[in-house]
């Protein structure tokens, strides 16, 4: 992706740690500390994200047309993501649970280093419904989180906080996988998560740009990014409480995230902001067999993948 980004750091932002002492005002005063270099968030190549979507589509096609909980397509999707992360140097863990008499799995990937008492998490559900491949819902979120994680490894990023990425199973059955994960954490480990970022449907073909309004600091981080590229946002309401951030929020973890719309209809006012077609759903293929690789808006996917990286880098330093 090569978006024109105004107001965004081009390489490195520098933050002064303390106020400067007046020269000579205090005899023998220690010199001011050196400024602290802050790593700028990278551009996430949309071609890489789309390559993951192509793989998820191929997996669905080879496994009865879907990647749903308890089906072979889901496990193949998880194995694909895990192999990429293992090769990149992540520590991966598969968490097993049962829902609707079928075995399900979460995949959690930890990047070595960082303060384990301050964990920044980014996650997305990896399962589809049984009626389709689930490429926008939620191959887009899953693939963007994967590519952000791989970019962490590729750039050798070493943040102050600990980074963790997750792919949830059985979201479509009622957030089962993410609930299982949160409930399996001790109160101490839940308290160590300083923020959970959720990405569910971030490439809708008639997109809006919606930001969760849960934690103010996380919300501001996303809004700052979109303001910097001149894209208006709205508060996300359609999926409020209906995706994998909800169990974290209920447990007291600060949450936030992005969304481009599902079955609700885009208004004329929203078309003025974002383009697209008024009177049409943000995603006409929501939970349908036509949710394939043809059901993704590249510009929305592009912008949201970069916003994801911006938030991960900003909140982990």
Attribute tags:
single chain, 317 residues, alpha/beta, 8-stranded mixed β-sheet, two-stranded antiparallel sheet, 10 strands, 20% strand
Q: Kindly report the spatial arrangement of strands forming the biggest sheet.
A: 3-4-6-5-7-10-8-9
Distance between the termini: 24 Å
Question: Largest beta sheet, briefly?
Answer: 8 strands, mixed
- The gyration radius over C-alpha positions equals 20 Å
Unreliable stretches covering 5 or more consecutive residues: 1-36
Morphology: globular
Determine the strand fraction and express it as a percent band: 15-25%
Please count the beta strands (DSSP E, at least 2 residues each): 10
The helix content, as a percent range, equals 25-40%
Walk me through the structure.
This protein is of the alpha/beta class and 317 residues long. The protein contains 9 helices and 10 strands. The chain has helices spanning 46-62, 72-88, 135-155, 176-184, 187-191, 216-228, 245-250, 268-274, 298-315, and strands spanning 12-15, 36-39, 91-99, 102-111, 115-125, 161-168, 193-199, 210-211, 234-235, 255-259. It has an 8-stranded mixed sheet, with helices on both faces. α6 (216-228) links the parallel β8 (210-211) and β9 (234-235). α3 (135-155) packs across α9. The longest helix has 21 residues, at 135-155. The protein is globular, with a radius of gyration of 20 Å. It starts with 11 loop residues before the first strand and ends with a helix. The model is unreliable at 1-36 (pLDDT under 50).
